[in-house]
C-alpha cells in the first residue's frame, strides 16, 4: 500500500519562513518544499543562515521534502553553462546542509536523437552532477513532463546510480498530452519527488490551466495506483495555485488525497 506522506511548497504562502512553518504544521503535514533562491541568493547561505533554517524546521518537526533551484536557463543552453553547473553544485551542497536529500531543477530541452551533440553534452553534464551528488549527499531530481517519459529514461540510463532521478507532476504530463499514470510507470525507479498538481481544459480546447487538486481532469486514483506499483516512498507535495487562500487550498488538497 502507498504510504501517504504529505508536504507543502511554502513559496505561494504569504509570510516569511518563521510564520509559514507553524501554519503548515497546523495542517498536520510532514514536510516542506523550499525554493532556495526564492528564500535568498545562494551566496547568502552562510553557516548561520543554514543553522537558522534547520532550527525552524526542527522546531515544527518538519522535514525538507524537496529543495528547488530556479534558474533562467537549463543545461541545454551553452551560454553561461559553467556558471549554472556551479550553481547546481552549490545548491546540491546546500540541500544536504539544510537536511534534505533531493534538489529539483529543470534541465531544459532533451533532444530525441542520442547522436545529437546537445544530447551528448547534456548526458555528460548530468553524469558529472550525479557523481557530485554522490559526494554531496543530495540527489538531483530532474523536472519532467515536457518530453515523453521514455525519452527521459533513455537519457538517464547509464548514469551513475544514486546521484540522479526525476521529479514528477501529473499536471505537467497531462498539459503536454501524456498519460500521467503511464508516465509514472515508465519512470519507475527514477522517481524521487512527486507534486500533486491538477489541470483542467480551457473552454474551446484552448490548452489547459492549473486548478486546485481534485478540481481538474487528472485521474488521481490511477496516479496513486501507479505510484504504489513502482514502489514510490517519498512525499506527495502539495502546491497552492494562488487562486485563493493557500492554506485553505492545502487543507482541501489533503482531504482530497485522504478521501482516495
Automatic annotation (TrEMBL):
<protein>
    <recommendedName>
        <fullName>Xylose isomerase-like TIM barrel domain-containing protein</fullName>
    </recommendedName>
</protein>
<dbReference type="InterPro" id="IPR036237">
    <property type="entry name" value="Xyl_isomerase-like_sf"/>
</dbReference>
<dbReference type="InterPro" id="IPR050312">
    <property type="entry name" value="IolE/XylAMocC-like"/>
</dbReference>
<dbReference type="Pfam" id="PF01261">
    <property type="entry name" value="AP_endonuc_2"/>
</dbReference>
<feature type="domain" description="Xylose isomerase-like TIM barrel">
    <location>
        <begin position="24"/>
        <end position="259"/>
    </location>
</feature>
<dbReference type="InterPro" id="IPR013022">
    <property type="entry name" value="Xyl_isomerase-like_TIM-brl"/>
</dbReference>
Amino acid at each position: 500500500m502507498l504510504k501517504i506522506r504529505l508536504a507543502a511548497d511554502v513559496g505561494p504562502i504569504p509570510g516569511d519562513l518563521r510564520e509559514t512553518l507553524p501554519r503548515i504544521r497546523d495542517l498536520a503535514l510532514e514536510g516542506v518544499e523550499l525554493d532556495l533562491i526564492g528564500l535568498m541568493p545562494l551566496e547568502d547561505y552562510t553557516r548561520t543562515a543554514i543553522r537558522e533554517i534547520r532550527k525552524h524546521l526542527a522546531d515544527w518537526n518538519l522535514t525538507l521534502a524537496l529543495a528547488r533551484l530556479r534558474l533562467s536557463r537549463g543545461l541545454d543552453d551553452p551560454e553561461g553553462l559553467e556558471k549554472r553547473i556551479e550553481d547546481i553544485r552549490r545548491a546540491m551542497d546546500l540541500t544536504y546542509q539544510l537536511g534534505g536529500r533531493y534538489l529539483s531543477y529543470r534541465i531544459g530541452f532533451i533532444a530525441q536523437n542520442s547522436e545529437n551533440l546537445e544530447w551528448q553534452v547534456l548526458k555528460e553534464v548530468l553524469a558529472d552532477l550525479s557523481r557530485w551528488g554522490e559526494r554531496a549527499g543530495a540527489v538531483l531530481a530532474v523536472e519532467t513532463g515536457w518530453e515523453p517519459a521514455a525519452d527521459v529514461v533513455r537519457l538517464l540510463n547509464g548514469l551513475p546510480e544514486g546521484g540522479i532521478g526525476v521529479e514528477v507532476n501529473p499536471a505537467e504530463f497531462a498539459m503536454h498530452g501524456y498519460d500521467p499514470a503511464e508516465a509514472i510507470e515508465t519512470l519507475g525507479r527514477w522517481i524521487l519527488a512527486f507534486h500533486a498538481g491538477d489541470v483542467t481544459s480551457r473552454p474551446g480546447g484552448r490548452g489547459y490551466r492549473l486548478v486546485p487538486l481534485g478540481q481538474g481532469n487528472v485521474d488521481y486514483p490511477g496516479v496513486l495506483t501507479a505510484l504504489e506499483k513502482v514502489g514510490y516512498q517519498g512525499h506527495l507535495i502539495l502546491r497552492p495555485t494562488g487562486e485563493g487562500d493557500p492554506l485553505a487550498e492545502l487543507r482541501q488538497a489533503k482531504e482530497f488525497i485522504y478521501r482516495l
